[in-house]
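Annex B. Sample input.
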Amino acid sequence: MVRGYTTDVLTARALEWLKTGRDESRPFLLCLSYKAVHYPFEPAPRHDGRYHDKPIDSPETRARTERKYRTQPNWIRARRYSIHGIDHMETGPFDKDPVPDLDDLYRGHAEAVHSLDENVGRVVDYLVESGLSKNTLVIYTSDNGFHLGEHGFYDKRDAFETSIRVPMLAWAPGRLEAGTKVQQMVQNVDLAPTILDAMGVETARFDGRSALALLRSRDDPDWRTHLLYEYHWEWNSPATPTQFAIRTDRYKYVYYHGTWDIDSFHDLQTDPDERHNLIAVPAYKPLIDDLRTRLFRKLESSGALNLPLRVPAGDRLDQRKLPD
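Annex B, continued. Sample output.
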């Protein structure tokens, strides 16, 4: 058994392998996957309480107002009172809710991120000190986004930008220009072909494609013009319906399945926070119809219309707090 804070331990193991565990005559691939920024958020003991007195700038979409929900589907407002909604958190002493206060959750998340960033810095420092940075590509990313009050949620499991977007940073001194910003839509399925391309390995068939040219500030006229998103309703967390989305560089259409509700359509250029659902605006109907057709054509061709159905198991987090 290894004792210590898991992020510190994982970093120590990674540095040990870089220093003494690898064959220095061969290229290497090191995947360092931290768990720290996952509920329950637990920072390193040295950072526990670091942000306890810091103010929190709440997002506008956290508001519980008529204007906020004037055009949104009903399930979005209802989810505020589910296990993944912030109004489920605002409980009294008799509710016995296991989820903490949102501000405490937010600060705990920040402290866990601080603990993670500190350890990423340890790895980067060693790459520089050892000279490995001259011939190493570092990619920093995550498996999902996360709401911290946006739209009245905490968690993920939906097609809003704060749920589906993740950080993706690439660092390779002397090989990638500092400050480069890639505007095209790069996905996690692009990671494997990008890494192989950087290593000079001819890639086989992938769902994604190499983004190395984009990282090198080169244009790729054949890059994707849209991406797809899917989430399937869970018996354990039933507040969020099955949803399929198609997102271009400007527009997003979301189809909700299995619920009596309206769909969503957002203009991400004029409304990046997705506060206004334009699904009922007549002028957008041709575009909405086109996006829906493209979405289902792709889902059908890839076999994604065969929805999974699983035997119910585990705890069911279905208690809905009653609105005031």
